[in-house]
Write a structure and sequence with these properties.
Helix content is about 80%, strand content about 0%. By secondary structure, the chain is mostly helical. The radius of gyration is 21 Å and the shape is globular. Keywords: Membrane, Transmembrane, Transmembrane helix, Transport.
């Protein structure tokens, strides 16, 4: 199947490159905002919609699954059909989906809209990551890509903090109204200042795409890295799924406190990433193995110490250390996977993002559903399950010799 370029598509004007770059940075945090901003509202949603905790937690899982799956295909589709129009359509669908959620009185339409949001945000994410490669070159490209990772990390930090106050002063629907308003502003900016950035429309060749996927699937260390990255981010999702219920229902604190707790977890994740960058020149395998061993020790202390010390401070302290550790491991291994296949960066990037978030959604929801954490011990056991899986990969499946480029 051969595609033809849209000759009538609006191209990005040279005078608007700086503005379009800023707009892209404003869109990058959308995935973090969508997953974290309503976390403090989950207990209230369960009460007002007369649903169980697990039923409300599925709204996050459905988003992550669709967000993961769409990235498998979005990169190759946009290389053939362009990025600009798909981005505009995705923003419109995202705005409408938030409006529907805010007006919903049952979970069924919310489930459907969360799946639609995963598709829309997945397309926007792939489009805007490609933007920096399309528009910028050399050191400037490296500079912007580095900033992009930091901007992406900020969203999970500020989102639950904002969401806690929205829940406290308004209601659970307020978070989705804010998301719709933010996306509407982005849509206007995109219409006025952005445009198509793809240098050349590529033919959509299924055989070539399948061949690239085959190469990735036959590279064991790459696959282990994708799995490990997904499990690390899944550890973060465990707190997103259960943290608000523990803080609000188990400990009796208001949603604002749950928002602050999630804010601390986001800071831990960000610090773990910075620590990974600071130690980037250290031997790859030893630092990851030390990190996961320390992680397991912290989790065991979290569980055992609950008999003599269990309150909001102990919960946040131990969870902070756990998130710091997985943030460190994720930063190292995800960076390795991104750079593993530089000649097919678009498809491999989509595969990494899709696979990692698919693993994140399945593993986090499965563990929370199995353990059903209600306190510090339950949260620690959930962390331990994820930590053991990561440890098996890092200590027993990974072989240092295979980390070298072929």
């Amino acid at each position: 199947m051969v595609t033809k370029p849209y000759t009538d598509v609006k191209r990005l004007h040279d005078d608007h490159k700086r503005k379009a770059t800023l707009i892209s940075f404003l869109m990058i945090p959308l995935s973090g905002l969508v997953t974290d901003i309503y976390a403090p509202s989950m207990p209230t949603m369960a009460s007002e919609l007369n649903q169980s905790e697990g039923a409300v937690q599925l709204t996050l899982t459905f988003f992550l699954l669709s967000y993961a799956v769409v990235q498998f295909f979005a990169g190759s589709i946009m290389d053939s059909y362009g990025r600009y129009r798909i981005t505009l359509i995705s923003l419109v669908l995202f705005i409408l989906s938030n409006v529907v959620i805010a007006l919903s009185t049952s979970l069924a339409p919310i489930y459907a809209m969360r799946i639609l949001q995963g598709v829309a945000i997945g397309c926007i994410g792939v489009s805007k990551r490609s933007f920096f490669v399309d528009v910028h070159e050399g050191d400037k490209r490296k500079h912007y890509l580095s900033i992009m990772s930091i901007v992406w990390s900020i969203a999970p930090i500020v989102a639950p903090f904002i969401g806690g106050y929205l829940q406290h002063y308004f209601n659970w629907q307020a978070s989705f109204c804010v998301l719709a308003g933010y996306a509407f502003v982005l849509l206007l900016l995109e219409l006025f200042y952005s445009g198509e950035t793809i240098p050349e429309f590529r033919p959509f060749k299924r055989k070539a795409i399948l061949k690239d996927y085959g190469i990735m699937l036959r590279t064991p260390m790459f696959i282990y890295g994708v799995i490990c990255s997904g499990l690390c981010y899944g550890t973060i999702m465990i707190f997103n799924l259960s943290g608000a219920f523990i803080v609000e229902h188990g400990m009796g604190f208001p949603p604002v406190v749950a928002g602050y707790a999630s804010l601390v977890m986001g800071i831990a994740w960000l610090l773990g990433g910075f620590l990974g960058k600071a130690l980037i020149d250290k031997p790859f395998m030893p630092k990851l193995r030390i990190a996961i061993i320390l992680e397991i020790v912290v989790i065991i202390l979290m569980i055992l110490s609950a008999t003599i010390w269990e309150n909001i401070y102990s919960l946040v302290l131990f969870a902070f250390l756990v998130h710091l550790g997985v943030g460190f491991i994720f930063n190292n291994y995800f960076a390795y996977c991104i750079g593993r296949f530089p000649k097919m960066a678009g498809i491999s990037g989509g595969f990494i993002g899709g696979s990692a978030f698919f693993i994140t959604s399945i593993s986090s929801y499965a563990l929370v559903g199995l353990v059903h954490p209600q306190d510090q011990v339950g949260l620690g056991i959930s962390y331990l399950g994820m930590g053991i899986l990561i440890m098996v990969i890092l200590l027993f499946l990974m072989k240092p010799d295979n980390l070298e480029e072929n």
